[in-house]
Design goal:
The chain is mainly beta. It has 1 helix and 8 strands. The chain has an 8-stranded antiparallel β-barrel with strand order 1-2-3-4-5-6-7-8.
């Protein structure tokens, strides 16, 4: 009986690791108002997010409240598998391009969703 060379066994083992499952996210799950602890490093401890069908607005706030956000700083968003990709659509001076923000969604329910890098838990407003 022949045995496999060690390098071939390692190669087969590495190739057989299951990939992390991709979440099934319906964009309609995001529509509405969400609150979270702020991760921006500002003096305001909370963040409010408002998702519409194509746009997301967010702002840091001193209080944890469930109000819609509408300001000049808004992003067009899309989902790429389990990644939330946001492109700035507000007013700029046009000299410096603003890169897309990519955040991986690691969990989502009807009441909260969790973003990775940096870790952030958003709670759905009633």
């Amino acid at each position: 009986m022949r045995t496999l060379p060690a390098w071939l066994a390692v190669l087969i083992t590495l190739g057989c690791h299951p990939k992390e499952p991709v979440l099934s996210i319906n964009p309609a799950q995001l529509i509405g108002n969400w609150t979270s602890r702020s991760i921006s490093g500002s003096e305001k401890p909370y963040t409010r997010w408002t998702f519409e069908s194509d746009y997301v607005y967010f702002v840091d706030d001193t209080l944890k409240k469930c109000q819609s956000v509408s300001n000049l700083s808004y992003y067009r968003y899309r989902l790429e598998e389990d990644n939330l990709v946001m492109r700035y659509e507000g007013i700029t001076n046009g000299l410096v391009p603003i890169p897309d923000i990519r955040r991986r969604i690691i969990a989502i329910t009807a009441n909260e969703f969790v973003l990775d890098s940096p870790y952030q838990v958003l709670e759905k407003c009633p």
